[in-house]
Amino acid sequence: MAKANQSQAVALMVEAADFAAFKHRNQRRKDIHASPYINHPIALAALLTNEAGITDPVVICAALLHDTVEDMETTLAQWQERFGKAIAGVVMEVTDDKNLPKAERKRLQTPRAHFRQGLRAAAVTVFKRGLSPQQGPAPS
Length: 140
Known about the structure:
- The chain is mainly alpha-helical.
- Helix 1 packs parallel to helix 3, helix 3 packs across helix 5 and helix 4 packs antiparallel against helix 5.
């Protein structure tokens, strides 16, 4: 990746982390420690990068932003304006429709995960099926 493109990618991922942190600023996890919610999307981005070897900035940004629509009422238009159509598309692909019963939302996750590009499909599968970190990174 050219240096300018790499700098743009890093800036975009930092902006996604900042946006997610702002949206989740008053939210806590339901764990025994009531840890900050932002730990979950950050841990997910770390899991995708460090364990699955995914470094696509679109996927990492989507990992950081994926709960901002479900939990914080962020709109597709807000994502498209701030992060572009590619990131908004991935976020919407992995976002549950809260109007559906939980069992139906879970049933729809696997078929929705298999879209256009193999890399993004792998990322969707990782963070919607079984490998999604629930408590944040494991203690060192």
